[in-house]
Design brief:
172 residues; alpha/beta; Maf protein; 6-stranded mixed β-sheet; 7 helices; 6 strands; globular
Length: 172
């Protein structure tokens, strides 16, 4: 099975391989595509749209069986206080689309305030952690959970949910 993942970020490629590890003859190719949303998606709607756009654009970029889109964003979550890191995945074969979300992780107020003021989460995390490219490593998820879950596992979890219509007949 050939799968195009709509990002050249190695963490997103690895997350796709992890979620599809049960598939024989798997080939995952990272494809640079446009998400069609802002660099820092805000809200569930924009984050989902980014994942859907990446999946469609990845599928259209080659002779793939599936296109995968993974998108991280920040969102207020009804019934809670604070701003959350959210992760969404979308999968398409050109006919069907599956969507799934990963864990929602509350951002510390000091980080949330900077993001609300217009900064992107990745660079803020780099600054707070005094590192470079945290998004290509453990991600904010790894930092916020002390390594209990890292970005790859969080994104793989979102993708596992999105694969439902492709791995079971329960979706009709």
């Amino acid at each position: 099975m050939r799968v195009g993942v709509g990002s050249t970020n190695p963490v997103k490629r690895d997350a796709t391989e992890a979620a599809l590890r049960h598939v024989s003859n798997l080939s995952v190719e990272a494809i640079a595509v446009e998400s069609g949303v802002s660099e820092q998606p805000v809200g569930e709607r924009e984050t989902v749209a980014g994942a859907q756009n990446r999946a469609r654009n990845a599928l259209a970029a080659g002779a793939f069986d599936l296109g995968v889109g993974l998108e991280g964003g920040v969102a207020d979550v009804e019934g809670t206080d604070g701003l959350y890191l959210v992760m969404w995945a979308a999968v398409t074969d050109g006919t069907r689309v599956g969507e799934g979300s990963g864990p929602r992780l509350r951002l510390p107020d000091s980080i949330a305030n900077r993001v609300r003021d217009g900064e992107e989460l990745g660079p803020v995390m780099d600054d707070v952690l005094d590192t470079d490219d945290v998004a290509k490593k453990q991600g904010a998820a790894g930092a916020l959970t002390g390594g209990v879950i890292d970005r790859e596992r969080a994104l793989a979890s979102a993708l596992a949910g999105a694969l439902g219509p492709f791995v079971t007949d329960l979706y009709g």
